[in-house]
Amino acid sequence: ATSIRLFTIELGIGEDPLRCRLKHAVLISCEAYEAISYVWGEPVYSYSLICNDQILMITPSLRDVLLRVRRTHVSRTIWADGACINQEDLNERGHQVNLMSDVYRKETRVLIHLGPADENIVSKALELIHGINNKHEMPAPSSDDWIPLLEFGSCQWFRRLWVVQECVLAQEAIV
């Protein structure tokens, strides 16, 4: 059977320590989970995630994502490569990379974290897109209205090759 790790992120608010319960799961019969698509950033493991009362060091970008998706009222089961794959074990890493298409097919949704983008830019870009869609008219090419969309498109997340697989195979994708 094909096995992966999932973790259930415990409740918390703001800067509360990140805690989770890490567990093995058989991919074809595991519980519902959400996958995270994010930019790794530099491989500097400077933050801790407390998993099963043990400390797992994670990158600043994964910490940011987990703080953002952690809930205050109900736990959430997650798959994130930075926590669910032993990055120091090259054999495991290679095996798990081969399973990633199945991981993204099986999840209930993929949570997309664009990186250090200004949320205001994202909302303005989406507002522009909805406006074009609803009004069937576009701003002039020289208009400053396009700036948020250009900044949105320049987010680091869009520069990753894996995003195609992560989004195309997802049942649902949420930014």
UniProtKB/TrEMBL annotation:
InterPro entries: HET, HetReg/Transcr_Mod. It comes from Lojkania enalia. This is Heterokaryon incompatibility domain-containing protein. It comes from the Eukaryota. Residues 33-166 form the Heterokaryon incompatibility domain.
